[in-house]
Amino acid sequence: MSAMDESFDRALDFSRPPETLAGPRDLGPLGAVPDNCGTAFRVWAPRARTLDLVVEGPGPPVRHRMEREKNGYFRTHLAGALPGTTYRYLIDGETLRPDPASRLQREGVHGPSTVWARPEAPTQPFPGHSLQDLFFYELHVGTFSPSSTFEGILPYLDHLARIGVTALELMPVSQFPGARNWGYDGVFPFAVQWSYGGPDGLFRFVREAHRKGLSVFLDVVYNHLGPEGNYLSSFGPYFSETTRTPWGEALNFDGPESDHVRHFFLENLRTLALNFDLDGFRLDAIHAIRDQSPHPFLADISCLAKNIAARRGRPLHLVAESNANDRRTVLPVSEGGLGFDAQWSDDFHHALHVHFTGERDGYYQDFSGTGDLALALSKGFVYRGQPSPAFRCRRGSASEDLPGHSFVFFAQNHDQTGNRRMGDRIATLVSPEALPLITALVVLSPGLPLLFMGEEYGEDRPFLYFTDHGDPDLVRAVREGRKREFASFGWTEEVPDPQDPETFARSRLSLTDPESSLSSFQHRLLDWTARLAKIRRTMPALHLPGPVGGPGNRVMASDDGLLIVLRGDPPASRIVLLANASREPRPLAAPFFPTEWKVGPLALLLDSGPAFGKNPFPLPLAGRTGLTLDPYRTLLLTESGP
User: Are 467 and 478 in contact (CB under 8 A)?
Assistant: First the structure.
């Protein structure tokens, strides 16, 4: 038995606890990996009887027969094959296909693959951020800047650092069809979108972000691949034969040969993390990952991330998107969990959205009133095992004992904006006076805050759904699918054509448009956001070490929209948020707080009044007399002493 065969057996010994399993390195690298004398090519293709490496160039293509290894892998080493070499694989002498683990697709999803090597440019030491210090900013590379590239974002890194975010979360950048796409139709998980600047562009972007003190997270999609340019089935059983996702074929993480499918995606995460010096990943819709195995693929992912973090001496965080509200997502693998660091709280978004907009269609039917918003702030989730009308079953599990940093809180994101018929942002759905309060609820949340690009100044341009598919049948299917999706929300009007380049152009940010300028209100909201972020960063009371439902995080809400949040534990000073989350003036009767809260004298930190804190009205700081708050007025106070 060869050393490579022995490493297969070690890595696939699932009789051991998952946290002790060998990393994907033991199964060997995938794709084209340059070395000092050429390039090693390796691919998993159990459906192929023979496999040839076909090198393309200015002359006729040259075929090189690949050696078959155990378990359906093929490999060869080609001396003199330098970065930039163009190649494909020839299956059984008949079918040419790009490399499933291609690092670079310069001619798109249907073209040949290209050998790529990580630049030799030195990187600056970067310590990363602890979990508690993460403040996310989600952005789409294509619509953030006029150039639609990684390079186009670089001039705005100082802006992002100034507003107080610490982690840039890029929507998926794996190679997708055409040049306009959200990224969730990617079909080459290892390849970085060529139109964005390819792998060299991403490498430089991460290096420059680190110089500005910003972590970089990638959004990766391990529940499905896009339909156009998806050639994995030519090579092996990468997809499940028993189930599908709402977006296409489910990946085979628990069926025959699934160990090697797992290896493909584990190796993908490892390669992305190490090649680009990334700080974390957001995993898309893990509730759609079909896996009934006793050792879940997602637990393997978390073990791998912890191994990488330990080896390089700084964190590699994992954040999950899931609509299941399952506490096991963030429990350690040793306790039967998946071992992720945090998960998105859709419940917070839904409760906030329903309260401020009044919309009750689709899944919003499950939420109502300020009470649900208070539950999300004080428990992490609203649905913790109760029946859900929208899901038509019980949803969620207990969450109040989980640490606050187990949750990511947001008022909008790419889904909740772009999956509206007209891509409406929250700034176009509520009155301007409500935006400072909404921002405060996110930034000062007990979890990890997330802003969607442009939210820091109240961007009012839409973020629409856009594509650039080359298959006419797929274009028609996407158009019809969008119309059906909106029917559940009662939106029957014309839907912007995802394939129209104008749909994409309308989604660009005002901030980065040379022909646009921010309004005076947007400048004030930008300053408000930055001040909130500074308070979050510097006030110990906002660093919640205990459970989200513990005494350090108290929330009260009234039916008429008054909201009071108390953060921190005595004897340390505490932070108080007083807000009128309604459209009408509301009296706040004294005493403001329950007796058991034992709140001392208060000092005003911020006031969202007309001048955003520059002219706060006189306030009875001890909270012993009544107070009337204007619509959406938000006061942030701190205990000034015992």
Answer: yes
3-state SS, 5-52, equals HHHHHHHCCCCCCHHHCCCHHHHCCCEEEEECCEEEEEEECCCCCCEE
* Average pLDDT of the residues in 325-343: 96
* pLDDT over 70, % of the chain: 91
| pLDDT the model gives residue 419 | 86
Residue 365: CB atoms within 10 Å: 14
Q: Which residue has 């330990």 as its token pair?
A: 310
pTM above 0.90, yes or no: yes
| H-helix or E-strand spanning residue 265 | helix 258-276
Angstrom distance (rounded) from CA 108 to CA 178: 7
639 is catalytic: no
- Angle at which helices 369-379 and 346-357 pack, to 10 degrees? 160
State yes or no: is 321 an active-site residue: yes
Q: Examine the fold and report which residue of 89, 114, 139 is the final residue of a domain before the chain moves on.
A: 114
Distance CA 83, CA 35 (A): 10
**Which residue, 69, 85, 114, sits at the end of a domain?**
114
With beta carbons less than 8 A apart as the criterion, state whether 313 and 355 touch.
no
For residue 622, the domain's CATH number is 2.60.40.1180
Give residue for tokens 């006029």. 146
Q: Which one of the listed residues 169, 219, 321, 468 is annotated catalytic?
A: 321
- What does residue 235 show for φ and ψ, rounded to 5 degrees? -95, -40
Query: Residue 591, preceding bond cis, omega within 30 degrees?
Result: yes
| Domain ranges, residue 89 | 3-114
Model pLDDT, residue 22: 38
Catalytic residue among 228, 267, 284, 347: 284
Q: Is the dihedral of CA 397, 400, 406, 408 positive or negative?
A: positive
In total, how many domains does the chain have? 2
Q: Does residue 325 fall inside a structural domain? A: no
